[in-house]
Amino acid sequence: MKALTFTLIAKPPERLDLAPLAPQRLAVLDRHAIEKIRIGQSKRASTVGDIFRVAGSDVENMVFDGGSDRFDCVAAGMTEGTVRVIGDVGAQAGRGMRGGRLTIEGNAGPHAGSGMRGGRLEIWGRAGDHLGAPLAGELAGMAGGMLIVRGKAGDFAGDRMRRGLITVLKGCGNHAGCRMIAGTLVVAGTAGEMPGYLMRRGSILLDRAPRNLSPSFVESGAPDNVFATLVDRHLIAEGILKRPLLGNAPLRYGGDNAVLGKGEILFPR
Amino acid sequence: MPKLEKLEVNGVVIDDTFAEAFGMRATAVLITAPSRKWALQAAASMTGFATSVIGCGCEAAIDVELPPSATPDGRPGCRVMIFAVSTDELQKQLTNRVGQCVLTSPGSACYAGLDGPNQLKLGSALRYFGDGWQISKKLGGKHFWRVPVMDGEFLCEATTGMTKEAVGGGNLLLLGESGAKALAAAEAAIEAMNQVPGAIMPFPGGIVRSGSKVGGKYKGMMASTNEAFAPTLRGVVKSELGPDINGVLEIVIDGETSDAVAAAMSAGIEAVTRLGAKKGAKRISAGNYGGKLGKFHYHLKDLLP
């Protein structure tokens, strides 16, 4: 079966909510029904057929041929299959994902991977602010799965993260991992101001010393750390990194002691 | 049962008999450490006093040594197997032994050594040693606990698998002209059997000199000496030994599967017959209970090289 392909006809005239196009939601629909799904967010909302040319039928293997920063909620709530976006996406890509694989071959807007619980979300370009973070009013951010940003991420990456693994390969903005509850945030490249600000638990792994750390973090030495070795090996095995990030005895800072203080920031000595 | 024609390989007589073995529960863990020395030390401590379920609660030994390239953290390690008669006893032995012998060993880490639908608590039971400072981590679909200790952290996978398909009590009896020749044969057999994955020989160095029968004349004795194979009792009791036998050693085998037990026994027989009767055993036999107690029977003639 040929991949179900949504080819962008022209730049969208309005913001689009693509959550209805998650693979498991399309499994019971034929092409005609798919083309009638309303995805526009204005009063006279566009349908799938207005924006995309639809071809193929394999919903387990979907492709968006062409992207736009007006594509919101791509693959939101996805539970299975693969979705590939050849281009940029807007806000909340992969929000609430529980399984499957979403690949964005461009840049992503804010709140990518927000509330993710499983699966793998990979962004080849940049990611906006609040990567994996909760929306306003929500208590916890990412709660599982793997989120990879091969470019740079914005501010508040991993905010209130609870579980899972986020990897950012070209640095991130300010307050990475702020208010973390648990989980692991890896940042290669420069991290901005005060990583781990008000984190309770969890691990922030950096490839270099942070340029600015909250004074409520305390140095905890650099004993041998098997966990660091495991993470290095895992990231290399997954094809995310080419060489170890931490080594086997990284320097450790514990914090944030302004709150619970059971988190950690590790980086090579 | 009619006796087959006498079977002899390189001067070693193989009895027309079988080893009788029983179903057991088994689990395995991978232990790693900063060096091979300390991985083996942790494993040796963990498998100490684990020769027989009769008196030790479990049977345990190192299954295989692992090079750094074969361990989860790239350090030297080994796989340890533990066998017990019930799931509860296996859980208790696993927790106690890893907690007292691996957690305490410098630089150690401990991982699941067996996959399967049935799981036993490993780090999930030991994490409380962290007194609230333990850290839970999920990585690549696996769950780990990091427990702060004085040399850094003890990293331990949360659970490990358990199999209900394990077999315990496979055995070989090696009968020699002297104790030294029986020992030479047993050592050759153990060296070969140690190469078989999924099988352990839990007695000291893999060899047992005090083979037993079930029960005894004294009240409360679960096992007592197997007088039929004791050379000093030849002529006094109904003996299985001919006049040329002065030393008998036994090798007990526990396997992750019945096939592993058979493979280990076959490797042992092959090594003993290769050594020959002049340097080693004159006869190979096996222990059984007439086939009425154990579900698994390993006929020596089926295991010949």
Structure description:
The complex is a heterodimer of chains A (269) and B (305). Chain A is built from four helices and 15 strands. Chain A has 269 residues and is mainly beta. Chain A is elongated and about 60 Å long. Chain B has two domains: 7-21 and 167-303, Alpha-Beta Plaits, CATH 3.30.70.520; 24-163, Alpha-Beta Plaits (2-Layer Sandwich), CATH 3.30.70.520. The chains are: A mainly beta (269), B alpha+beta (305). At the A-B interface, β10 and α4 of A face β8 and β10 of B.
Note the main attributes of this structure:
heterodimer, A: 269 residues, mainly beta, 13-stranded mixed β-sheet, two-stranded parallel ribbon, 9% helix, B: 305 residues, alpha+beta, Alpha-Beta Plaits, 15-stranded mixed β-sheet, two-stranded antiparallel ribbon, 22% helix, elongated
Summarize the structure.
Chain A is mainly beta. Chain A is built from four helices and 15 strands. In chain A, the strands form two sheets. Chain A has a 13-stranded mixed beta sheet with strand order 3-1-4-6-7-8-9-10-11-12-15-14-13.
Break the fold down into its secondary structure elements and pairings.
The complex is a heterodimer of chains A (269) and B (305).
Chain A (H helix, E strand, L loop, with lengths): L2 E6 L7 E2 L5 H4 L4 H5 L12 H4 E4 L2 E8 L5 E2 L9 E5 L14 E4 L15 E4 L19 E7 L13 E6 L15 E4 L15 E4 L11 E2 L6 H12 L13 E5 L7 E5 L2
Parallel strand pairs in A: 1-4, 2-5, 4-6, 6-7, 7-8, 8-9, 9-10, 10-11, 11-12, 12-15
Antiparallel strand pairs in A: 1-3, 13-14, 14-15
Chain B lengths: L6 E3 L2 E3 L3 E15 L3 H11 L6 H4 L2 E8 L10 E8 L2 H16 L6 E4 L5 E4 L1 H4 L8 E5 L2 E8 L2 E6 L1 E18 L2 H15 L5 E2 L11 E3 L8 E3 L21 E9 L2 H18 L5 E5 L10 E4 L6
Parallel strand pairs in B: 2-16, 6-10
Antiparallel strand pairs in B: 1-2, 3-5, 3-6, 3-11, 3-17, 4-5, 7-11, 8-9, 9-10, 11-15, 11-16, 12-15, 13-14
* Beta fraction of chain B: 35-45%
Which secondary-structure class do the elements of chain A indicate? Answer: mainly beta
CATH class of the largest domain in chain B: Alpha Beta
What is the CATH architecture annotation of the largest domain in chain B? 2-Layer Sandwich
The N- and C-terminal alpha carbons of chain B lie at a distance of: 24 Å
Q: Give the assembly state of these chains.
A: heterodimer
Which percent band covers the strand fraction of chain A?
Answer: 25-35%
Could you describe the largest sheet of chain B, including whether it forms a barrel?
Answer: 15 strands, mixed
Low-confidence stretches of chain B: none
Give the strand order of the largest sheet of chain A, numbering strands 1, 2, ... along the chain: 3-1-4-6-7-8-9-10-11-12-15-14-13
Number of helices of chain B: 6
**Strand count of chain B:** 17
Instruction: Please summarize the sheet with the most strands of chain A.
Output: 13 strands, mixed
What is the gyration radius of chain B calculated from CA atoms?
A: 21 Å
Relative helix content of chain A: under 10%
- Strand tally of chain A is 15
CATH topology (level 3) name of the largest domain in chain B = Alpha-Beta Plaits
The pLDDT mean of chain A sits at 96
User: How many individual domains of chain B?
Assistant: 2
- SSE order of chain B, as H and E? EEEHHEEHEEHEEEEHEEEEHEE
